[in-house]
Design a protein that fits this description.
By secondary structure, the chain is an alpha/beta fold. The chain contains 25 helices and 30 strands. The longest helix has 19 residues, at about 80-100. Iron/sulfur cluster binds near residues 38 and 183.
């Protein structure tokens, strides 16, 4: 048996794994003791990866050959790769010619490797001539990106995991770290053992497993995050705990913000957030008096119609107290997906370009055009995830190419998304698994490789680039995502722009990565000092790591200089916004969504393993015991949960962690176990039958975390 070092394909912690194999079959997996993210540890998902690669599982679930449908609704039949790719190129070229480039939308995934992402981005913006490429990372980190850019000037998390060991106060807000990022929770527990003075504040409406471990739990009302942060800043000012010297030397815009937070005295903040004044005072004191305060945050802030403001208001607290750029201090967004960061680095989103360049910046567009050797890149911003599917539902987008993601289950407002998939003239689904709900809508299915077979790089939450290495050959006829994109790009170019065939010369992932690396020269994420060979020799590295650097940088902004025009960070003077859909008389419950400990996203991989159902075996909606009693329900009784967009039926369960008026439903469950329908009676499944399509106007990230719902007992015949 051989062990091949690689990276876990689940969450953005980016744990290193050692894959045990015989060259043909994967037989085991263990944590890589030399990987700086996890030092040998794995959570239950990572530790069972090898079981998802077992032959019996692969045979039942993998897409093993290209398949196409002659008519929607028919069973797909197998075709050879040449026919499949020629068919795809022909159909896309015809739509391109008839309806224009903007009639094509490409929707990719934070599960893709950086090299895959790079080719797709170039294909869409450099060949097709549109910016209509977006990614399911839009559902994950786009508010964090917008929050960083609005305040610190660049999409660059300033901290590292090693900061856990230096923090005296840890403010965990909008994150159930214990379940969503289990290995980081282990690391934080180690830090508190070694540093007994370390205090944890957890802000979360629910008493989660993370909140239960906190020294102070702030069970704020859903959506009241900005009011909480403004209220804390009010107290920091009142108690003389802001850092006037830091504010004067390194920031702009404090006066306007200070004026705004005058309106958030403790009594008012308590009213807005539902928190006790004493708890607000304690939190402000711990935040401001601590020698080093670290904030950890995730989807509770990001997946909101005011996600950018929530991120920016939290970062305000760090700037006002000078809690940034020092060991153990700073705002630290935790990445959901394994390579949401890498996708941003190559610009694989509707509003970005390569190496953190902005599409809206003419100089950046010109630089990318020069790097790619094309006359220009298109100027009109692309459609973001929800906009792309809405445009398809409205008939403006005619072709959808969906790669390594399952929008029929994972996007909000499932009824609209499924209408889009039905209405689109041509749908390509490029996938490893044949079992996702989206596969049913595909005219053409292209089999892709997956973990254990893929080769390339990913970047984790702390800006660390790790290699993903193959242990076994691709299953069946599956091909690598970058290779499928390269081949299809060349066939497409032959039909619409033959002079651009040369844009896609790639024969290895390393050749793509080198082109990406060279595009970062002089940028905030400069990695010109790195190579595959250096990653091989020295292991995973953090960016920036410019040419000549002895190592990547673990902490940003230590010098107080920020990547803005004047070198100063900017305070964000933002007002609290209401929830996109507040509870009312008709839909009186606040439905919150989140992760389970042992499942990942839509369960296309974790859902294959019986042992991962040991923690949570069946879907249920959690309700406060008082609400259960008020509705005349016993634990396990069926309820109908309805929003303005659809309804599902499932068991209810009492949870002491929820106050009356709130409900919680995990995001993972889909077609296998939940049934429901939309307003027209069409079948729907899962939590996204209920969620709202509302999104943040800046980041365009949907408010997946909250919807107003009605809950009623189901009368069995
Ligand atoms: Fe994988 Fe995340 Fe678990 Fe680490 S914590 S093993 S990256 S799922």
């Amino acid at each position: 048996m051989t062990e091949t070092p690689s990276t876990c394909p689940y969450c953005g912690i980016g744990c290193g794994v050692l894959i045990e194999h015989d060259g043909q079959r994967i037989t085991g997996v263990r944590g890589d003791p030399d990987h700086p993210a996890n030092a040998g540890r794995l959570c239950t998902k990572g530790a069972t990866l090898h079981l998802t690669a077992a032959d019996s599982v692969q045979r039942q679930t993998r897409l093993l050959a290209p398949m196409q449908r002659t008519r929607r609704g028919n069973a797909p039949h197998t075709v050879d790769w040449d026919s499949a790719l020629d068919n795809a190129a022909e159909r896309l070229a015809a739509i391109h010619q008839r309806d224009g480039a903007d009639a094509i939308g490409v929707y990719v995934s934070g599960q893709l490797l950086t090299e895959d992402y790079y080719v797709f981005n170039k294909l869409v913006k450099g060949l097709l001539g549109t910016n209509h490429i977006d990614t399911n990372s839009r559902l994950c980190m786009s508010s964090a990106v917008a929050g960083y850019k609005a305040t610190l000037g660049a999409d660059a998390p300033p901290c590292s995991y090693e900061d856990f060991a230096h923090a005296d106060t840890v403010f965990i807000t909008g994150s159930n770290l214990a379940w969503a990022h289990p290995i980081l929770m282990r690391r934080l527990e180690d830090a508190r053992r070694a540093r007994p003075q370390q205090k944890w504040i957890v802000a979360d409406p629910r008493r989660t497993e993370t909140a239960a471990l906190a020294d102070l739990h702030l069970a704020l009302k859903p959506g009241s995050d900005v009011a909480l942060y403004h209220g804390l800043l009010h107290l920091l000012l009142a108690q003389g705990l802001t850092d006037a010297a830091y504010i004067a030397a390194h920031t702009t815009g404090f006066e306007a913000l200070a004026e705004r937070v005058r309106a958030f005295p403790p009594a008012e903040t308590a009213r807005l957030t539902g928190l006790a004044e004493a708890d607000l005072r304690t939190a402000a004191r711990w935040f401001g008096e601590s020698p080093a305060t670290l904030s950890l945050y995730c989807q509770g802030l990001n997946q909101s119609a005011s996600g950018t403001d929530k991120n920016a208001a939290l970062i305000n607290l760090h700037l006002a107290t000078g809690q940034i750029g020092r060991p153990g201090a700073g705002p630290f967004s935790l990445t959901g997906q394994p390579n949401a960061m890498g996708g941003r680095e190559v610009g694989g989103l509707a509003n970005l370009l390569s190496a953190h360049r902005d599409l809206a910046n003419p100089a950046h567009r010109a630089e990318v055009a020069r790097l790619w050797g094309v006359p220009s890149v298109p100027t009109t911003p692309g459609r973001t995830a929800m906009e792309m599917f809405q445009a398809a539902a409205d008939g403006a987008v005619k072709a959808l190419w969906i790669v390594c993601t399952n929008p029929a289950q994972s996007l909000p407002d499932q009824a609209m998304v499924r209408r889009a998939l039905e209405r689109a003239e041509f749908v390509i689904v490029q996938e490893a698994f044949a079992t996702t709900a989206t596969c049913a809508y595909a005219d053409l299915l292209l089999p892709a490789t997956t973990w254990g077979e893929k080769n390339g790089t990913v970047t984790n939450s702390e800006r660390r680039i790790s290699r993903v290495r193959p242990a076994v050959p691709p299953a069946g006829q599956a091909r690598h995502d970058w290779a499928i994109a390269t081949d299809l790009a060349r066939r497409l170019a032959a039909r619409i722009a033959p002079e651009r065939i040369a844009l896609f010369p790639y024969t290895t992932p390393e050749s793509i990565w080198n082109e990406h690396r060279d595009s970062t020269r002089g940028r905030d994420l400069d990695i010109t000092g790195l190579s595959y060979a250096r990653l091989e020799a020295q292991g995973p590295q953090q960016w920036p790591c410019p040419e000549g650097a002895a190592a990547g940088r673990s902490r940003l902004y230590a010098d107080g200089v920020f990547p803005t025009a004047d070198g100063r960070a900017r305070f964000a003077d933002v007002a609290p916004s209401p929830l996109a859909e507040a509870p009312d008389a008709e839909y009186p419950f606040s439905l919150l969504t989140g992760r389970l400990r042992d499942q990942w996203h839509g369960m296309s991989r974790t859902g294959l393993l019986g042992r991962l159902y040991g923690h949570e075996g069946l879907p249920a909606i959690d309700l406060a015991p008082a609400d259960l009693a008020r509705l005349g329900l016993q634990d396990g009784d069926l309820v109908r949960v309805a929003s303005r967009r659809g309804a599902i039926v499932l068991p209810a369960r009492a949870s002491e962690g929820l106050p009356p008026g709130q409900a919680f439903l995990p995001m993972h469950w889909g077609q296998e176990v939940l049934s429901g329908q939309d307003a027209q009676g069409q079948p729907l499944t899962g939590v996204n039958a209920l969620t709202t399509p509302a999104f943040c106007p800046t980041s365009k990230q949907p408010e997946l975390k909250h919807a107003a719902v009605a809950i009623a007992p189901v009368q069995l015949p």
